[in-house]
Design a protein that fits this description.
Elements lengths: L4 E7 L4 E7 L6 E7 L2 E7 L5 E8 L3 E7 L19
Antiparallel strand pairs: 1-2, 1-6, 3-4, 4-5
């Protein structure tokens, strides 16, 4: 969903670098995977097609922060029918 965001902090030798992958459109999500020493962060559509991917060596990743889209409070709905009056 729009608003999904992942921040990756990577050791770049003498300094650190921060990268961010964001779900840029409604209906997309951000998925993370760690495989064979590689951290992979991908933006994915509803159908599962990968839009873009960022890959980092796992030994260089200092932090991986997943920030999901904010969940709105449920709206107050009026009752379907009024209660019978006595």
């Amino acid at each position: 969903m729009k608003g999904d965001r992942v921040e990756i902090v990577v050791d770049a030798g003498d300094t650190t670098r921060t990268y961010e992958v964001v779900a840029s459109r409604a209906g997309r999500r951000v998925e993370t995977a760690v495989r064979r020493g590689v951290v992979e962060v991908s933006e994915v559509t509803r159908s599962g097609a990968v839009v873009r991917t960022a890959r980092f060596m796992a030994s260089r990743v200092l932090a991986l922060v997943e920030q999901p889209a904010p969940v709105d409070a449920p709206a107050q709905r009026p009752p379907l029918r009024e209660s019978p009056q006595s």
